[in-house]
Amino acid sequence: MIAAITVLAVVGMSTSWMVAETTQGNGEAINVAGSLRMQSWRMASLYQRILQDSNPTHRSDLQQAIQRFETDLAADSILSVLPSDETTPLKQVYRQVENGWQQRIKPDLISLLTTNTTTAADAALLDAVPQFVAHINDLVKQIEEATEAKIFVLRVILGVAVIGTILAVILSIYLVNNILVTPLKGLLGLTDQIRQGNLAVRTELGGEDEIGQLGQAFNLMAEDLSKLYQDLEARVEQKTAELTRSNRSLDLLYRSITRLHGIAPDRAVFHNVLKDAEAVLGLGNGTICLKEDNDQQGDVVATTSSDGKSPMCQRANSCAECHDPHAARMDTLPDGRQILRMPLTDAEKRYGMLAVDVPANTTAERWQVQLLEALSRHIGVTIASEQRSEQHRRVSLLEERAVIARELHDSLAQSLAYMKIQVSRLRAAVKNPADATEVTAALEELREGLNSSYQQLRELLSTFRLRMEDDDLGMALAQTTTEFAERGNLPIALDVSLGNLNLTPNEEIHLLQIVREALSNTLKHAHASQAWVSLQRQEGNNSLQLRIEDDGAGIQKTANLHHYGMAIMDERARALHGILQYLPRTGGGTCVQLDFTPKTRIAHAA
Protein backbone atom coordinates (compact mmCIF):
# COMPACT_ATOMS: atom_id res chain seq x y z
CA MET A 1 0.00 0.00 0.00
CA ILE A 2 2.88 2.35 0.68
CA ALA A 3 4.21 1.51 -2.78
CA ALA A 4 0.80 2.24 -4.33
CA ILE A 5 0.56 5.58 -2.56
CA THR A 6 4.07 6.38 -3.67
CA VAL A 7 3.30 5.49 -7.30
CA LEU A 8 0.16 7.66 -7.26
CA ALA A 9 2.08 10.55 -5.82
CA VAL A 10 4.94 10.21 -8.30
CA VAL A 11 2.60 9.84 -11.31
CA GLY A 12 0.42 12.75 -10.23
CA MET A 13 3.38 15.03 -9.58
CA SER A 14 5.14 14.00 -12.80
CA THR A 15 2.05 14.57 -14.94
CA SER A 16 1.32 17.84 -13.23
CA TRP A 17 4.88 18.91 -13.85
CA MET A 18 4.60 18.04 -17.53
CA VAL A 19 1.31 19.91 -17.91
CA ALA A 20 2.67 22.87 -16.01
CA GLU A 21 5.76 22.79 -18.23
CA THR A 22 3.62 22.93 -21.39
CA THR A 23 1.48 25.69 -19.89
CA GLN A 24 4.52 27.80 -19.11
CA GLY A 25 4.60 30.89 -21.32
CA ASN A 26 0.87 30.84 -22.24
CA GLY A 27 0.21 33.96 -20.20
CA GLU A 28 2.95 35.85 -22.01
CA ALA A 29 1.60 34.58 -25.33
CA ILE A 30 -1.89 35.88 -24.46
CA ASN A 31 -0.44 39.26 -23.50
CA VAL A 32 1.62 39.53 -26.70
CA ALA A 33 -1.32 38.37 -28.86
CA GLY A 34 -3.63 40.85 -27.13
CA SER A 35 -1.13 43.65 -27.79
CA LEU A 36 -1.41 42.91 -31.53
CA ARG A 37 -4.98 44.25 -31.48
CA MET A 38 -3.87 47.55 -30.01
CA GLN A 39 -0.98 47.77 -32.45
CA SER A 40 -3.38 47.15 -35.35
CA TRP A 41 -5.64 49.99 -34.30
CA ARG A 42 -2.63 52.25 -33.74
CA MET A 43 -1.31 51.51 -37.23
CA ALA A 44 -4.77 52.28 -38.62
CA SER A 45 -4.76 55.58 -36.77
CA LEU A 46 -1.32 56.50 -38.11
CA TYR A 47 -2.38 55.44 -41.58
CA GLN A 48 -5.38 57.77 -41.41
CA ARG A 49 -3.25 60.72 -40.25
CA ILE A 50 -0.82 60.18 -43.08
CA LEU A 51 -3.74 60.26 -45.53
CA GLN A 52 -4.80 63.59 -44.04
CA ASP A 53 -1.56 65.63 -43.68
CA SER A 54 1.41 63.46 -44.79
CA ASN A 55 3.47 64.44 -41.74
CA PRO A 56 6.95 62.77 -41.86
CA THR A 57 6.74 62.08 -38.18
CA HIS A 58 3.65 59.97 -38.69
CA ARG A 59 5.40 58.02 -41.42
CA SER A 60 8.34 57.29 -39.08
CA ASP A 61 5.97 56.16 -36.30
CA LEU A 62 4.12 53.92 -38.76
CA GLN A 63 7.39 52.38 -39.92
CA GLN A 64 8.29 51.54 -36.29
CA ALA A 65 4.78 50.18 -35.59
CA ILE A 66 5.02 47.85 -38.64
CA GLN A 67 8.37 46.50 -37.42
CA ARG A 68 7.12 45.97 -33.86
CA PHE A 69 3.92 44.23 -35.06
CA GLU A 70 5.86 41.91 -37.26
CA THR A 71 8.27 41.13 -34.39
CA ASP A 72 5.48 40.43 -31.90
CA LEU A 73 3.58 38.28 -34.42
CA ALA A 74 6.62 36.02 -34.72
CA ALA A 75 7.52 36.18 -30.99
CA ASP A 76 8.78 32.99 -29.32
CA SER A 77 6.06 33.15 -26.67
CA ILE A 78 3.36 32.85 -29.42
CA LEU A 79 5.20 30.28 -31.46
CA SER A 80 5.80 28.11 -28.35
CA VAL A 81 2.06 27.68 -27.73
CA LEU A 82 1.24 26.77 -31.31
CA PRO A 83 0.71 23.07 -31.91
CA SER A 84 2.61 21.32 -34.66
CA ASP A 85 -0.61 20.01 -36.23
CA GLU A 86 -1.82 22.42 -38.95
CA THR A 87 -5.39 21.22 -38.65
CA THR A 88 -5.93 22.49 -35.13
CA PRO A 89 -8.12 25.61 -34.80
CA LEU A 90 -5.36 27.54 -33.02
CA LYS A 91 -2.90 26.91 -35.84
CA GLN A 92 -5.46 27.79 -38.52
CA VAL A 93 -6.43 31.08 -36.86
CA TYR A 94 -2.72 31.98 -36.54
CA ARG A 95 -2.28 31.29 -40.25
CA GLN A 96 -5.24 33.57 -41.06
CA VAL A 97 -3.71 36.39 -39.02
CA GLU A 98 -0.31 35.81 -40.59
CA ASN A 99 -1.74 35.71 -44.14
CA GLY A 100 -3.89 38.78 -43.52
CA TRP A 101 -0.83 40.66 -42.34
CA GLN A 102 1.51 39.53 -45.08
CA GLN A 103 -0.93 39.72 -47.97
CA ARG A 104 -3.29 42.58 -47.13
CA ILE A 105 -2.34 44.86 -44.24
CA LYS A 106 1.45 45.06 -44.51
CA PRO A 107 1.62 45.64 -48.34
CA ASP A 108 -0.87 48.54 -48.15
CA LEU A 109 1.02 50.12 -45.31
CA ILE A 110 4.33 49.78 -47.13
CA SER A 111 2.79 51.17 -50.30
CA LEU A 112 1.61 54.30 -48.47
CA LEU A 113 5.08 54.82 -47.04
CA THR A 114 6.83 54.48 -50.38
CA THR A 115 4.46 56.74 -52.41
CA ASN A 116 3.12 60.15 -51.63
CA THR A 117 -0.14 59.75 -53.56
CA THR A 118 -3.35 58.50 -52.09
CA THR A 119 -5.47 55.96 -53.93
CA ALA A 120 -8.84 54.40 -53.40
CA ALA A 121 -7.13 51.12 -52.40
CA ASP A 122 -5.33 52.94 -49.61
CA ALA A 123 -8.60 54.18 -48.24
CA ALA A 124 -10.05 50.65 -48.42
CA LEU A 125 -7.32 49.45 -45.98
CA LEU A 126 -9.14 51.12 -43.16
CA ASP A 127 -12.16 48.95 -43.88
CA ALA A 128 -10.02 45.76 -43.70
CA VAL A 129 -8.51 46.51 -40.30
CA PRO A 130 -11.62 45.57 -38.24
CA GLN A 131 -11.74 42.17 -39.90
CA PHE A 132 -8.01 41.70 -39.27
CA VAL A 133 -8.49 42.63 -35.61
CA ALA A 134 -11.32 40.12 -35.41
CA HIS A 135 -8.92 37.39 -36.55
CA ILE A 136 -6.48 38.51 -33.84
CA ASN A 137 -9.31 38.25 -31.29
CA ASP A 138 -9.92 34.70 -32.46
CA LEU A 139 -6.18 33.97 -32.00
CA VAL A 140 -6.21 35.31 -28.42
CA LYS A 141 -9.35 33.32 -27.67
CA GLN A 142 -7.84 30.12 -29.06
CA ILE A 143 -4.70 30.58 -26.93
CA GLU A 144 -6.86 31.11 -23.84
CA GLU A 145 -8.96 28.03 -24.59
CA ALA A 146 -5.81 25.93 -25.10
CA THR A 147 -4.45 27.13 -21.77
CA GLU A 148 -7.71 26.41 -19.97
CA ALA A 149 -7.78 22.94 -21.52
CA LYS A 150 -4.32 22.20 -20.09
CA ILE A 151 -5.39 23.51 -16.67
CA PHE A 152 -8.45 21.29 -16.81
CA VAL A 153 -6.29 18.29 -17.60
CA LEU A 154 -4.07 19.23 -14.63
CA ARG A 155 -7.13 19.40 -12.35
CA VAL A 156 -8.34 16.02 -13.54
CA ILE A 157 -4.94 14.46 -12.92
CA LEU A 158 -4.69 15.96 -9.43
CA GLY A 159 -8.23 14.90 -8.58
CA VAL A 160 -7.59 11.36 -9.69
CA ALA A 161 -4.34 11.29 -7.66
CA VAL A 162 -6.07 12.66 -4.53
CA ILE A 163 -8.97 10.21 -4.81
CA GLY A 164 -6.58 7.32 -5.41
CA THR A 165 -4.43 8.33 -2.47
CA ILE A 166 -7.46 8.59 -0.16
CA LEU A 167 -8.67 5.16 -1.24
CA ALA A 168 -5.18 3.71 -0.73
CA VAL A 169 -4.95 5.28 2.74
CA ILE A 170 -8.36 3.93 3.72
CA LEU A 171 -7.41 0.48 2.50
CA SER A 172 -4.08 0.76 4.33
CA ILE A 173 -5.83 1.66 7.59
CA TYR A 174 -8.16 -1.31 7.16
CA LEU A 175 -5.32 -3.70 6.44
CA VAL A 176 -3.14 -2.31 9.26
CA ASN A 177 -6.00 -2.71 11.71
CA ASN A 178 -6.68 -6.30 10.67
CA ILE A 179 -3.08 -7.41 10.09
CA LEU A 180 -1.23 -5.46 12.82
CA VAL A 181 -3.38 -3.77 15.44
CA THR A 182 -5.74 -6.63 16.25
CA PRO A 183 -2.98 -9.28 16.53
CA LEU A 184 -0.82 -6.91 18.58
CA LYS A 185 -3.68 -6.23 20.95
CA GLY A 186 -4.05 -9.96 21.38
CA LEU A 187 -0.35 -10.30 22.12
CA LEU A 188 -0.59 -7.42 24.60
CA GLY A 189 -3.36 -9.22 26.45
CA LEU A 190 -1.29 -12.41 26.55
CA THR A 191 1.70 -10.50 27.94
CA ASP A 192 -0.53 -9.11 30.69
CA GLN A 193 -1.50 -12.69 31.60
CA ILE A 194 2.20 -13.65 31.69
CA ARG A 195 2.84 -10.66 33.97
CA GLN A 196 0.20 -12.02 36.32
CA GLY A 197 2.02 -15.37 36.41
CA ASN A 198 0.14 -17.44 33.83
CA LEU A 199 3.04 -18.83 31.80
CA ALA A 200 0.86 -21.42 29.99
CA VAL A 201 -0.70 -18.94 27.55
CA ARG A 202 0.11 -19.30 23.83
CA THR A 203 -0.88 -17.36 20.73
CA GLU A 204 -2.44 -18.81 17.56
CA LEU A 205 -0.73 -16.33 15.24
CA GLY A 206 1.14 -18.04 12.43
CA GLY A 207 2.35 -17.55 8.94
CA GLU A 208 5.51 -16.43 7.24
CA ASP A 209 5.01 -12.71 7.66
CA GLU A 210 6.39 -10.62 10.49
CA ILE A 211 3.26 -10.99 12.64
CA GLY A 212 3.44 -14.77 12.32
CA GLN A 213 7.13 -14.73 13.23
CA LEU A 214 6.30 -12.49 16.19
CA GLY A 215 3.68 -14.97 17.36
CA GLN A 216 6.16 -17.84 17.11
CA ALA A 217 8.75 -15.78 19.01
CA PHE A 218 6.15 -15.03 21.69
CA ASN A 219 5.41 -18.74 22.13
CA LEU A 220 9.14 -19.52 22.38
CA MET A 221 9.56 -16.72 24.92
CA ALA A 222 6.68 -18.06 27.01
CA GLU A 223 8.22 -21.52 26.99
CA ASP A 224 11.64 -20.14 28.01
CA LEU A 225 10.06 -18.07 30.78
CA SER A 226 8.25 -21.15 32.05
CA LYS A 227 11.52 -23.07 32.18
CA LEU A 228 13.34 -20.16 33.84
CA TYR A 229 10.58 -19.76 36.40
CA GLN A 230 10.77 -23.44 37.24
CA ASP A 231 14.53 -23.12 37.74
CA LEU A 232 14.31 -19.78 39.55
CA GLU A 233 13.71 -21.14 43.04
CA ALA A 234 16.78 -23.36 42.90
CA ARG A 235 18.91 -20.49 41.63
CA VAL A 236 17.57 -18.18 44.33
CA GLU A 237 18.51 -20.75 46.95
CA GLN A 238 21.96 -21.06 45.39
CA LYS A 239 22.48 -17.29 45.35
CA THR A 240 21.20 -17.06 48.91
CA ALA A 241 23.73 -19.68 49.96
CA GLU A 242 26.50 -17.79 48.13
CA LEU A 243 25.51 -14.52 49.78
CA THR A 244 25.39 -16.20 53.17
CA ARG A 245 28.83 -17.65 52.53
CA SER A 246 30.13 -14.26 51.40
CA ASN A 247 28.73 -12.62 54.53
CA ARG A 248 30.35 -15.27 56.70
CA SER A 249 33.63 -14.77 54.85
CA LEU A 250 33.47 -11.01 55.35
CA ASP A 251 32.59 -11.52 58.99
CA LEU A 252 35.57 -13.87 59.35
CA LEU A 253 37.92 -11.33 57.79
CA TYR A 254 36.50 -8.55 59.97
CA ARG A 255 36.85 -10.55 63.19
CA SER A 256 40.32 -11.73 62.15
CA ILE A 257 41.47 -8.18 61.42
CA THR A 258 40.01 -7.06 64.75
CA ARG A 259 41.85 -9.81 66.60
CA LEU A 260 45.14 -9.35 64.73
CA HIS A 261 45.33 -5.55 64.77
CA GLY A 262 43.72 -4.81 68.11
CA ILE A 263 46.66 -5.89 70.28
CA ALA A 264 50.02 -7.54 69.76
CA PRO A 265 49.09 -11.02 68.40
CA ASP A 266 50.14 -14.02 70.47
CA ARG A 267 49.50 -17.76 70.29
CA ALA A 268 45.98 -17.40 71.72
CA VAL A 269 45.07 -14.81 69.09
CA PHE A 270 46.39 -16.99 66.25
CA HIS A 271 44.55 -20.00 67.68
CA ASN A 272 41.25 -18.09 67.78
CA VAL A 273 41.77 -16.92 64.18
CA LEU A 274 42.29 -20.55 63.08
CA LYS A 275 39.15 -21.68 64.95
CA ASP A 276 37.07 -19.00 63.24
CA ALA A 277 38.50 -19.93 59.83
CA GLU A 278 37.84 -23.62 60.43
CA ALA A 279 34.20 -22.92 61.32
CA VAL A 280 33.61 -20.81 58.19
CA LEU A 281 35.57 -22.87 55.66
CA GLY A 282 34.30 -26.26 56.73
CA LEU A 283 37.66 -27.89 55.99
CA GLY A 284 40.04 -29.68 58.32
CA ASN A 285 42.47 -28.47 60.98
CA GLY A 286 44.66 -25.45 60.45
CA THR A 287 48.22 -24.57 61.42
CA ILE A 288 50.24 -21.36 61.62
CA CYS A 289 53.99 -21.92 61.57
CA LEU A 290 56.43 -19.00 61.70
CA LYS A 291 59.84 -19.32 60.08
CA GLU A 292 61.89 -16.58 58.47
CA ASP A 293 64.55 -17.20 55.85
CA ASN A 294 67.44 -17.18 58.31
CA ASP A 295 65.76 -19.53 60.80
CA GLN A 296 66.66 -23.24 60.76
CA GLN A 297 63.62 -24.41 62.71
CA GLY A 298 60.01 -23.26 62.37
CA ASP A 299 57.75 -22.37 65.30
CA VAL A 300 54.19 -23.74 65.26
CA VAL A 301 52.42 -20.91 67.07
CA ALA A 302 48.87 -22.25 66.64
CA THR A 303 47.07 -25.40 65.47
CA THR A 304 43.49 -26.64 65.81
CA SER A 305 44.44 -30.33 65.66
CA SER A 306 43.02 -32.36 68.57
CA ASP A 307 46.36 -34.02 69.29
CA GLY A 308 48.24 -30.73 69.06
CA LYS A 309 50.29 -31.94 66.09
CA SER A 310 50.23 -30.05 62.84
CA PRO A 311 49.23 -32.06 59.72
CA MET A 312 51.90 -30.11 57.90
CA CYS A 313 54.58 -31.37 60.31
CA GLN A 314 53.34 -34.97 59.95
CA ARG A 315 53.91 -34.86 56.19
CA ALA A 316 57.21 -32.94 55.89
CA ASN A 317 60.60 -34.38 56.77
CA SER A 318 62.03 -30.99 57.71
CA CYS A 319 60.97 -27.38 58.18
CA ALA A 320 62.97 -26.31 55.13
CA GLU A 321 60.97 -28.70 52.95
CA CYS A 322 57.65 -27.46 54.32
CA HIS A 323 58.52 -23.76 53.97
CA ASP A 324 60.06 -24.09 50.52
CA PRO A 325 58.58 -21.19 48.48
CA HIS A 326 58.90 -23.23 45.29
CA ALA A 327 56.94 -26.21 46.63
CA ALA A 328 53.43 -27.02 45.40
CA ARG A 329 50.54 -25.29 47.15
CA MET A 330 48.57 -28.52 47.49
CA ASP A 331 50.26 -31.67 48.88
CA THR A 332 48.58 -35.08 49.05
CA LEU A 333 49.10 -37.39 52.04
CA PRO A 334 49.15 -41.22 51.79
CA ASP A 335 45.68 -41.49 53.38
CA GLY A 336 44.11 -39.32 50.66
CA ARG A 337 44.06 -36.08 52.63
CA GLN A 338 45.53 -32.91 51.20
CA ILE A 339 47.45 -30.06 52.78
CA LEU A 340 46.65 -26.58 51.40
CA ARG A 341 49.55 -24.20 52.18
CA MET A 342 49.50 -20.41 52.05
CA PRO A 343 52.64 -18.28 52.66
CA LEU A 344 52.53 -15.57 55.32
CA THR A 345 54.12 -12.63 53.51
CA ASP A 346 53.90 -8.92 53.06
CA ALA A 347 55.51 -6.70 50.46
CA GLU A 348 58.99 -7.18 51.95
CA LYS A 349 59.60 -10.70 53.23
CA ARG A 350 58.21 -14.13 54.12
CA TYR A 351 57.34 -14.91 57.72
CA GLY A 352 55.94 -18.42 57.72
CA MET A 353 53.14 -20.65 56.48
CA LEU A 354 49.39 -21.13 56.97
CA ALA A 355 48.34 -24.74 56.30
CA VAL A 356 44.86 -26.28 56.24
CA ASP A 357 44.07 -29.99 56.26
CA VAL A 358 41.63 -30.87 53.43
CA PRO A 359 39.81 -34.17 54.15
CA ALA A 360 39.91 -37.06 51.69
CA ASN A 361 37.40 -37.00 48.81
CA THR A 362 37.06 -33.24 49.32
CA THR A 363 38.26 -30.48 47.03
CA ALA A 364 38.90 -26.96 48.21
CA GLU A 365 36.63 -24.62 46.31
CA ARG A 366 37.81 -21.40 44.72
CA TRP A 367 36.16 -19.17 47.33
CA GLN A 368 37.81 -21.16 50.13
CA VAL A 369 41.24 -20.74 48.53
CA GLN A 370 40.66 -17.00 48.02
CA LEU A 371 39.52 -16.59 51.64
CA LEU A 372 42.62 -18.41 52.89
CA GLU A 373 44.83 -16.21 50.70
CA ALA A 374 43.23 -13.05 52.14
CA LEU A 375 43.57 -14.40 55.68
CA SER A 376 47.23 -15.33 55.14
CA ARG A 377 47.96 -11.84 53.78
CA HIS A 378 46.36 -10.24 56.84
CA ILE A 379 48.38 -12.48 59.17
CA GLY A 380 51.59 -11.65 57.26
CA VAL A 381 50.87 -7.93 57.37
CA THR A 382 50.14 -8.18 61.11
CA ILE A 383 53.43 -9.95 61.80
CA ALA A 384 55.33 -7.43 59.68
CA SER A 385 53.58 -4.52 61.39
CA GLU A 386 54.36 -5.93 64.82
CA GLN A 387 58.03 -6.42 63.90
CA ARG A 388 58.27 -2.88 62.55
CA SER A 389 56.60 -1.52 65.69
CA GLU A 390 59.05 -3.44 67.86
CA GLN A 391 61.94 -2.11 65.78
CA HIS A 392 60.59 1.43 66.12
CA ARG A 393 60.32 1.00 69.87
CA ARG A 394 63.92 -0.19 70.02
CA VAL A 395 65.13 2.71 67.91
CA SER A 396 63.16 5.17 70.04
CA LEU A 397 64.62 3.66 73.19
CA LEU A 398 68.16 3.92 71.79
CA GLU A 399 67.56 7.51 70.72
CA GLU A 400 66.19 8.39 74.16
CA ARG A 401 69.22 6.78 75.82
CA ALA A 402 71.52 8.69 73.47
CA VAL A 403 69.77 11.92 74.42
CA ILE A 404 70.13 11.16 78.13
CA ALA A 405 73.81 10.26 77.68
CA ARG A 406 74.48 13.49 75.78
CA GLU A 407 72.63 15.54 78.39
CA LEU A 408 74.62 13.92 81.19
CA HIS A 409 77.86 14.47 79.29
CA ASP A 410 77.06 18.13 78.66
CA SER A 411 76.10 18.87 82.27
CA LEU A 412 76.98 16.46 85.10
CA ALA A 413 80.04 14.96 83.40
CA GLN A 414 81.66 18.38 83.02
CA SER A 415 80.73 19.38 86.57
CA LEU A 416 82.13 16.12 87.97
CA ALA A 417 85.33 16.60 85.95
CA TYR A 418 85.67 20.09 87.41
CA MET A 419 85.12 18.74 90.95
CA LYS A 420 87.68 15.99 90.28
CA ILE A 421 90.23 18.69 89.55
CA GLN A 422 89.27 20.48 92.75
CA VAL A 423 89.64 17.24 94.76
CA SER A 424 93.18 16.82 93.38
CA ARG A 425 93.91 20.40 94.31
CA LEU A 426 92.47 19.80 97.81
CA ARG A 427 94.59 16.64 98.28
CA ALA A 428 97.73 18.57 97.44
CA ALA A 429 96.76 21.44 99.77
CA VAL A 430 96.02 19.07 102.72
CA LYS A 431 99.56 17.67 102.61
CA ASN A 432 100.86 21.18 103.34
CA PRO A 433 99.43 22.54 106.64
CA ALA A 434 100.52 26.03 105.69
CA ASP A 435 98.03 26.13 102.79
CA ALA A 436 94.91 26.38 104.96
CA THR A 437 93.58 29.19 102.78
CA GLU A 438 93.96 27.03 99.69
CA VAL A 439 92.05 24.20 101.41
CA THR A 440 89.25 26.53 102.37
CA ALA A 441 88.99 27.86 98.77
CA ALA A 442 89.00 24.35 97.30
CA LEU A 443 86.29 23.22 99.73
CA GLU A 444 84.18 26.24 98.84
CA GLU A 445 84.53 25.54 95.14
CA LEU A 446 83.64 21.86 95.77
CA ARG A 447 80.54 22.95 97.65
CA GLU A 448 79.52 25.28 94.82
CA GLY A 449 80.25 22.55 92.25
CA LEU A 450 78.13 20.03 94.18
CA ASN A 451 75.28 22.52 94.43
CA SER A 452 75.56 23.25 90.72
CA SER A 453 75.67 19.53 89.87
CA TYR A 454 72.67 18.83 92.08
CA GLN A 455 70.78 21.69 90.42
CA GLN A 456 71.69 20.39 86.96
CA LEU A 457 70.55 16.89 87.98
CA ARG A 458 67.20 18.28 89.10
CA GLU A 459 66.92 20.18 85.83
CA LEU A 460 67.61 17.03 83.83
CA LEU A 461 65.15 14.97 85.84
CA SER A 462 62.47 17.62 85.38
CA THR A 463 63.15 17.80 81.65
CA PHE A 464 63.03 14.01 81.17
CA ARG A 465 59.82 13.75 83.19
CA LEU A 466 58.23 16.40 81.03
CA ARG A 467 59.14 14.57 77.83
CA MET A 468 57.99 11.18 79.16
CA GLU A 469 54.73 12.46 80.59
CA ASP A 470 53.63 14.54 77.62
CA ASP A 471 54.65 14.40 73.96
CA ASP A 472 53.49 17.95 73.25
CA LEU A 473 56.25 20.59 73.29
CA GLY A 474 53.78 23.37 74.01
CA MET A 475 52.56 21.61 77.17
CA ALA A 476 56.14 20.95 78.27
CA LEU A 477 57.01 24.64 77.80
CA ALA A 478 53.87 25.63 79.71
CA GLN A 479 54.86 23.40 82.65
CA THR A 480 58.41 24.76 82.54
CA THR A 481 57.32 28.42 82.60
CA THR A 482 54.84 27.67 85.39
CA GLU A 483 57.59 25.94 87.41
CA PHE A 484 60.04 28.85 87.10
CA ALA A 485 57.31 31.44 87.70
CA GLU A 486 56.41 29.74 90.99
CA ARG A 487 60.06 29.22 91.94
CA GLY A 488 61.11 32.84 91.46
CA ASN A 489 57.73 34.57 91.97
CA LEU A 490 58.18 36.00 88.47
CA PRO A 491 55.33 36.40 85.93
CA ILE A 492 56.31 34.60 82.70
CA ALA A 493 54.20 34.98 79.52
CA LEU A 494 54.29 32.08 77.00
CA ASP A 495 53.42 32.27 73.25
CA VAL A 496 53.86 29.09 71.14
CA SER A 497 52.82 28.89 67.47
CA LEU A 498 54.38 26.00 65.53
CA GLY A 499 51.69 25.68 62.86
CA ASN A 500 51.89 22.22 61.29
CA LEU A 501 55.60 21.66 61.95
CA ASN A 502 56.74 18.55 63.82
CA LEU A 503 60.03 18.47 65.74
CA THR A 504 62.23 15.49 66.51
CA PRO A 505 62.70 14.47 70.18
CA ASN A 506 66.29 15.79 70.13
CA GLU A 507 65.15 19.18 68.84
CA GLU A 508 62.45 19.39 71.50
CA ILE A 509 64.97 18.47 74.25
CA HIS A 510 67.43 21.14 73.07
CA LEU A 511 64.73 23.82 72.90
CA LEU A 512 63.39 22.90 76.32
CA GLN A 513 66.86 22.94 77.87
CA ILE A 514 67.71 26.32 76.31
CA VAL A 515 64.49 27.77 77.73
CA ARG A 516 65.18 26.30 81.18
CA GLU A 517 68.79 27.53 81.18
CA ALA A 518 67.75 31.03 80.09
CA LEU A 519 64.97 31.22 82.68
CA SER A 520 67.35 29.91 85.36
CA ASN A 521 69.79 32.69 84.51
CA THR A 522 66.94 35.20 84.62
CA LEU A 523 65.96 34.10 88.14
CA LYS A 524 69.56 34.09 89.39
CA HIS A 525 71.06 37.17 87.84
CA ALA A 526 68.59 39.42 85.99
CA HIS A 527 66.55 40.71 88.97
CA ALA A 528 63.62 41.03 86.55
CA SER A 529 59.96 41.73 87.27
CA GLN A 530 58.58 40.16 84.06
CA ALA A 531 59.73 37.55 81.53
CA TRP A 532 58.45 36.41 78.13
CA VAL A 533 58.95 33.13 76.22
CA SER A 534 57.97 33.00 72.51
CA LEU A 535 58.37 30.15 69.98
CA GLN A 536 57.07 31.18 66.54
CA ARG A 537 57.18 29.78 63.02
CA GLN A 538 58.54 32.39 60.61
CA GLU A 539 56.45 33.61 57.68
CA GLY A 540 57.32 32.22 54.23
CA ASN A 541 59.52 29.28 55.39
CA ASN A 542 59.71 26.44 57.89
CA SER A 543 62.19 28.07 60.28
CA LEU A 544 61.49 28.72 63.97
CA GLN A 545 62.48 31.58 66.26
CA LEU A 546 62.78 31.15 70.04
CA ARG A 547 62.93 34.29 72.20
CA ILE A 548 63.40 34.44 76.01
CA GLU A 549 63.13 38.05 77.23
CA ASP A 550 63.19 39.79 80.62
CA ASP A 551 63.13 43.38 81.87
CA GLY A 552 66.05 42.91 84.28
CA ALA A 553 69.58 44.28 84.61
CA GLY A 554 70.66 43.45 81.07
CA ILE A 555 73.12 41.09 79.38
CA GLN A 556 76.19 43.30 79.67
CA LYS A 557 76.03 43.39 83.46
CA THR A 558 75.29 39.73 84.08
CA ALA A 559 77.17 37.86 81.36
CA ASN A 560 80.14 37.13 83.63
CA LEU A 561 77.90 35.46 86.19
CA HIS A 562 76.50 32.69 84.02
CA HIS A 563 79.03 32.19 81.23
CA TYR A 564 78.99 28.40 81.79
CA GLY A 565 75.23 28.23 81.09
CA MET A 566 75.72 30.41 78.04
CA ALA A 567 78.33 27.96 76.71
CA ILE A 568 75.87 25.08 77.18
CA MET A 569 73.19 27.02 75.29
CA ASP A 570 75.67 27.77 72.49
CA GLU A 571 76.45 24.05 72.16
CA ARG A 572 72.76 23.22 71.95
CA ALA A 573 72.22 25.91 69.31
CA ARG A 574 75.06 24.45 67.25
CA ALA A 575 73.49 20.99 67.62
CA LEU A 576 70.33 22.47 66.13
CA HIS A 577 72.37 24.15 63.35
CA GLY A 578 70.90 27.45 64.49
CA ILE A 579 72.09 30.91 65.46
CA LEU A 580 71.92 31.92 69.15
CA GLN A 581 72.17 35.63 70.01
CA TYR A 582 72.23 37.53 73.33
CA LEU A 583 70.66 40.91 72.62
CA PRO A 584 69.73 43.90 74.79
CA ARG A 585 65.98 44.20 75.00
CA THR A 586 64.26 47.39 73.91
CA GLY A 587 63.12 49.14 77.07
CA GLY A 588 65.73 47.37 79.22
CA GLY A 589 66.59 43.78 79.95
CA THR A 590 67.95 40.85 77.96
CA CYS A 591 66.71 38.92 74.91
CA VAL A 592 68.03 35.43 74.14
CA GLN A 593 67.12 34.67 70.52
CA LEU A 594 67.54 31.36 68.66
CA ASP A 595 66.81 30.99 64.91
CA PHE A 596 66.95 27.51 63.33
CA THR A 597 65.26 25.31 60.71
CA PRO A 598 63.87 21.95 61.92
CA LYS A 599 64.87 18.79 60.06
CA THR A 600 61.37 17.37 60.16
CA ARG A 601 58.80 17.65 57.39
CA ILE A 602 55.57 19.52 57.57
CA ALA A 603 53.10 17.23 59.31
CA HIS A 604 50.32 15.84 57.14
CA ALA A 605 46.78 16.14 58.36
CA ALA A 606 45.40 12.92 59.76
UniProtKB/TrEMBL annotation:
Stretches of the chain forming a coiled coil according to its record: 222-249
Localization per record: Cell inner membrane
Record GO terms (molecular function): ATP binding; phosphorelay sensor kinase activity; protein dimerization activity
Keyword terms of this UniProt record: ATP-binding, Cell inner membrane, Cell membrane, Coiled coil, Kinase, Membrane, Nucleotide-binding, Phosphoprotein, Signal, Transferase, Transmembrane, Transmembrane helix, Two-component regulatory system
CDD domains: HAMP, HATPase_UhpB-NarQ-NarX-like, NarX_NarQ_sensor
Documented EC number(s): 2.7.13.3
Signal peptide annotation: 1-19
Catalytic activities: ATP + protein L-histidine = ADP + protein N-phospho-L-histidine
Limits of the Histidine kinase domain: 403-600
Keyword set includes Iron-sulfur: no
Stretches that traverse the bilayer: 152-176
InterPro entries, per database record: GAF-like_dom_sf, HAMP_dom, HATPase_C_sf, HATPase_dom, His_kinase_dom, NarX-like_N, NarX-like_N_sf, Sensor_HK_TwoCompSys
EC category: transferase
Protein name (database record): Sensor protein
Organism for this UniProt entry: Thiothrix fructosivorans
